[in-house]
Amino acid sequence: MKHILDNSSRLIKTFNSITIFEKGKQMGFGMPYNPETTDIYNLSNISSEEIPKLPQSLASWLREQDQESLKKWNVTTFPIEDSQVYSRLALGHYFHAQFDVIIKKLKAEGFRVNALVNCTVTDILLEIKSNTGKVVANNGDYKCSKIVIATGHNFLNTDQPVTVIMEPRGLLKKFYLVNRNSIILRLAF
């Protein structure tokens, strides 16, 4: 979304409508930082100065928040520093706020933005004749000229090692099925 905003004067000539599908209740948090999937004691692994440029830095945004919110997010060390690592909850609320800012700016630039929550995408179909795609979701079908896929995370309770039948020179011993979209290779040297 930030890339679209940064290039809005050029991209608005190519498309002017954006539909975002979110399986969860709230948009913009990111799975590791969402209040539904983390708790107050989980720290993020990134400081304000390491986050790619968004409308406002994490540290600057945290400095503007009230004490009650900071306490809910386990931000208890003051002053707030750019190099400090804060809770995943704080980072999630920051990402959510920055997402909202970017969406408002995109709308001000003339984009129509439709953010759908509680919306599970079940399929994406390519329509070759029209060079378009169709997103099939639990609440309907959406015809699109361009589709960007961000699959997110889907952690299993435990890794499921699977032995590989053909091993190239004995290097590849096992792979771990993480979810339907990705694997982790374990190499033995």
TrEMBL record:
Residues 7-153 form the FAD-dependent urate hydroxylase HpyO/Asp monooxygenase CreE-like FAD/NAD(P)-binding domain. It comes from the Bacteria. It comes from Lacinutrix neustonica. The lineage of its organism: Bacteria, Pseudomonadati, Bacteroidota, Flavobacteriia, Flavobacteriales. Coiled coil: none annotated. InterPro entries: FAD/NAD-bd_sf, HpyO/CreE_NAD-binding, L-asp_N-monooxygenase_NS-form. This is FAD/NAD(P)-binding protein.
